[in-house]
Amino acid sequence: MAVVEKKPAYQELVASLATDVRRSAADVQQEVGRSISVVSRDLDVLLSADWVRWRIDFAHMGMGFATAAVLWLSVEQAELNRVAVSMKLLPQVRFCASATGEANLAVMMWLRNLRELDEIELRIASVFAKVQITDRWIVPRIAKRDGHILDLDSRRLRFVPNEQLPLFED
User: Which domain holds residue 137?
Assistant: First the structure.
């Protein structure tokens, strides 16, 4: 990753790509009203910036992930990083983050079936004897992900922007 200055001129390009990062430079150029050469050059710069994260997702139902679940774990503070790193190695894990409260680690997973959750819980209990599963949530349907409204098959219907916050400080 290259060190790229956070110029305000880039904010409009990043916001434009938030609706669909797969858009062509010509499509973005029409929206922002700059020349195609300037937009292409700026997109090349943004692709190498260490402060921009690109994400292309897929329809999880189409890949066989029928449901999602969240495990809330209570982990000793000294073990939190080790447990979190181990959780992120599981192929089902989509998101893992520390939290405050009794359950200080949240683990979001996509599952092919609910039996996978039992297997994961057994693995956690066998590898981390002191980790307690304090709660589990079953998520029967994901209707919106990163601003994208999804249909019943988890395919993108449209984009609804989240509250407009500055992408970086001026």
Answer: 61-141
Per-residue pLDDT tens for 138-160?
988 777 877 878 888 888 888 88
Strands 67-74 and 132-139: antiparallel
For 117, the enclosing helix (H) or strand (E) is helix 115-127
Do 67 and 127 fall into the same domain?
A: yes
- Residue 109 CB coordination number (10 Å): 22
The tokens describing 158, both together, are 């449209």
Tell me: the pLDDT tens digits for 84-139? 999 999 999 999 999 998 999 999 999 999 999 999 999 999 999 999 999 999 98
105 and 119 both lie in a single domain: yes
CATH number for position 14: 1.10.10
137 and 84 within one domain: yes
User: CA 13 → CA 88, 91, 139, 148, distances in Å?
Assistant: 31, 32, 33, 18
AA letter at 53:
R
Q: Name residue 50's amino acid.
A: D
* Strands lying side by side in the sheet with 132-139: 93-98, 105-111, 67-74, 132-139
Q: Which residue has the tokens 């190498």?
A: 48
First to last CA, the chain: 22
